[in-house]
Amino acid sequence: MADYPALFAAQASRPNIVFILADDLGYGDLGCYGQTKIRTPNLDRMAAEGMRFTQFYTGCPVCAPSRCTLMTGKHLGHATVRNNMQRGPGLEGQHRMEAGTVTVAQLLKKSGYATAIVGKWGLGMPEEQSSPLDFGFDHHYGYLCQGMAHTFYPPYLWRDNKQEPLAGNPPYTYGQKGPIEPTGQTYSADLMTEDALRWVRGHRDQPFFLYIASTIPHLSLQVPEDSLAEYRGKWPETPLTNSKHYSNHDTPRAAYAAMVTRLDRDVGRLLSLLKELKLDENTLVMFGSDNGAVFPLSGTDPEFFRSNGPLRGYKQQLWEGGIRTPFIARWPGKIKAGTTSDHIGAYWDVLPTLCELAGAPPPADIDGLSFLRCCSADPASSNTTTCIGNSTAKGDGRPSASATGRPCASR
Amino acid sequence: MREQVKRDRNSTPELYNLARDPGETANVAQDNPGLAAKAAALMKAARSPSSEPQWNF
After folding, report:
1. Of A74, A64, A61, A140, which is closest to residue A317 (Cα–Cα)?
2. How far apart are the first and last CA of chain B?
3. How many angstroms separate the CA atoms of A204 and A369, rounded?
């Protein structure tokens, strides 16, 4: 426990960790990051009750490699998955992670955490020994393949490496020709949220790590009526009728906004459950996106929404708009409410941060640096000077993030 | 940053002052050749070969 920071040593039991990853959500898509058209009250409240980072970066401007950096603590010069790549023509699933790859889930599991991923994996399939269960997760429910996640009404989702059919949804195979059916009976994001909430209830008595990899607001633009109703008719719309690979929509702007607000609602449900179970003050919740908002494609309108705020570029580009992410960390009593940090961090810093939190030694060959100290509510270390002063090498000889010369200032 | 590295291993580094220019409108690499060279050297050094041939360039 020599590495365990004094700031958190008083913690009687190790905290639970929930990491929520949105999909293609831009730096400017949340109210707390300047969004004026889309309502995100729960994430805004989460930021008001925690810390909002203004210079946090994803692992990559596209999906799979960004998730790989998050899982492994290695940047794209060293990561095992360095681009989006299907594992084979017509096959469900992406390029696998190499055998022997060490993930944050494995490290936390080894140190006694229950581990689950609910949502999109995108880093390989069970038959290639590259499913979430092969890399440290006790439980997975959701999509294994990014391509299958292009519909929110898929014919099945995966539960612990087994396909589970969804009632009333149209057939869909990744790579099929023509647009995706716009609707079905069972909206995948709702089932995934239910599964995440159920899993938290079932693991309330032990430290847990829950990785919620939502597929919102990635294309296709699909959202149930109870969310769409709030935005329909609010703005001029150009119906989308000629989508090549995604689904069409009569009111694409309303659909995008409704999807983001639905994701926000689901985050609110999770935060309410943590409170109800009295886990609130012993749970660190982090929220970010896998990359920036997508360029205008199949109904998305990032210029109308200013989805990437003042930043240049989109998903797939290394301009700031492709890689800078909204990033919020909330942990009542430990992270000071209403704070903002301009600490420069990236997704490969998440593994060492969570390891430090759990008292699990991180591998020596990672690239990431823990930013745990930047989150401290201790007033003595929440200013620039002290934070730099605190950043001496830890027991394992690796410097912490603030030792890079970049202050982790809070204000 | 460098663009299109897969097509050109020696593509020209670009440099932006995010504090003054968050929208990345002005490439200041020519005004700061030392800094741009340092960034380019870091990018080259900070990588190892991948087992996937398509990711080696």
Report:
1. A61
2. 16
3. 29
Nearest Cα neighbor of A56 from A411, A346, A319 is: A346
Q: Which of residues 287-346 of A touch B (CB under 8 A)?
A: 310-313, 318-320
Report yes or no: A202 and A279 within 8 Å, Cβ to Cβ: no
Contact A44, A310 (CB under 8 A): no
Q: Are A57 and A355 in contact (CB under 8 A)?
A: no
Q: Determine which helix (DSSP H) or strand (DSSP E) holds A51, and give its type and residue range.
A: strand A51-57
CB atoms B46 and A98 under 8 Å: no
pLDDT in tens, A201-238: 999 999 999 999 999 999 999 999 999 999 999 999 99
Look up residue A13 and give its amino acid: S
Cα B17 from Cα B19, distance rounded (Å) = 6
Distance from the Cα of B23 to chain A's closest Cα (Å) equals 5
- Count other Cβ atoms within 10 Å, centred on residue A100: 6
Of B18, B43, B55, the CB nearest to A83: B55
CA dist A226 and A154 (Å) reads 20
Is A54 buried (19+), middle (13-18) or exposed (0-12) by CB count in 10 A? middle
**Contact at 8 Å (CB) between A228 and A36?**
no
Q: Which of A54, A83, A130 to mutate to test binding with chain B, by most B CBs within 10 Å of its CB?
A: A83
DSSP conformation class of A138: S
- Cα separation, A120 vs A135, in Å, equals 14
Instruction: Say whether B3 and A77 touch across the interface (CB within 8 A).
Output: no
CB contacts, 8 Å: A75 with chain B: 46
Distance CA A300, CA A382 (A): 39
Q: Provide ipTM, 2 decimals.
A: 0.94
Asked whether the whole model's pTM tops 0.90, one would answer yes
